[in-house]
Amino acid sequence: MNFSLICLLDVHDSVRKGWQICQSDLSEMFRSESASRAVLMMIYSPSKYIASKARSMLSEILEPVGKEYLKRSLRVLNFTSTRDNFGIPDMLQTGINLVALTCCACLPWYQSYIVKSGGVKILVAFIKWCLSNGVHIGRLNFAPHLHNIFSQRHCCWVCKEDWEGNDILLLYGLWGLAELLHYGSISKNFDIFSGQVEYTEAQFVRMLQEICSDNSALGLKWNAAYILSYFGFYGFPSKLGRRIGKALDENEFADTRLILAKGESMSVHGVILAIRCPSLLPPEELSHDEKASDGSSGRCAIDKQYGKFKKEIRLSSHVDNQALAKLLEFIYLGYLHAGDEHVKKLKILAKHCSLQPLSTMLGKRRPKVGHSFPHL
């Protein structure tokens, strides 16, 4: 872990110097950017050993003056959100401070300090500033060492640029905010935004949904979707999903009926189920008494009523009406909105229906760097 220690010391030094770094020190800033990036990837490594070691070492290095460094990083980011002019040195300094904040956001004591110091408000304001001012900066813009014959070789994942895109500062901001929300959930601090943001929760949610729906890079979409899960929105909003979702409450072309144990039923479109969630459609060759893998009955009644085929699928008595309605919301829209009281039942349904992306969101599992975004 000698490499980790060198990188951590570099980050420690760059954050300590803060605004003392000027344009003539660009070479040092480039080095600090690379080091901070390496630390970030180690701290959030899928390897538990690497992540644990990196976090332990970072905690030890920051122990004497970590509070002061964080205070400076927050001040830099807060100031950035009020600026109009933004040059290369500013990009580098902002990027380094964002990474430093995101690294510290995984350490319990620093999480608490960041939140109490208004870190959530600062990050939300920064994210809003990036989106409102069209701040599109790829890492290649301020990391010249990547411009070499090996710049197209990526050892960690495929299509690296597609994951980060040209919004690296926005990605770091979303990443840091996701960590703070994760801390807020663990500590049962559900009013984490109370009194901190200048615009409503609904506006913030719409902003995140737009990131998921547009042509943003994969990393932005994953982190935006992850943050949305802390507001009760689970899944992956998209423009196509909004169009398909309009059919959810329309029965005109519905050709399949889901029947619950208590006699309640829901009309759905077989073609949408077949594409989005085939596990809800048992094989037609199953007999009346056989069970499908998801606990639904294999009985399919087919008739020519109104000139179209109709199916009736009887579901297990364990299937809850409200949970099924929410699941259909996900199947049609690509995401659903649910309170904590529905999450447990939805997890069971998602597992039986083999909806792994939904299970990931319901479990609030962090997105892994480099993973492709689900196309629902």
Task: Return the string of H and E elements.
Answer: HHHHHHHHHHHHEHEEHEHEHH
Please report which band the strand proportion falls in: under 5%, 5-15%, 15-25%, 25-35%, 35-45% or over 45%. Answer: under 5%
Helix/sheet category: mainly alpha
Helix content: 40-55%
* Major sheet size, sense and barrel closure: 3 strands, mixed
Rounded to the nearest angstrom, the distance between the terminal CA atoms is 41 Å
How many domains would you count in the coordinates? 2
Mean pLDDT: 76
Which blocks of ≥5 consecutive residues have pLDDT under 50? 18-24, 149-161, 285-309
Strand order of the largest sheet: 3-2-4
Query: What's the gyration radius in Å?
Result: 24 Å
Shape: elongated
Counting DSSP H or I runs of 4 or more residues, the number of helices is 17
Number of strands: 5
